[in-house]
Amino acid sequence: MSTAERAVEMTTTCPWIGYDDQEAATIVRFVSKSSPSQAAEVAAYERAHLGREGVIAAAERRTAKWDACQH
Question: In total, how many domains does the chain have?
Answer without folding.
Answer: 1
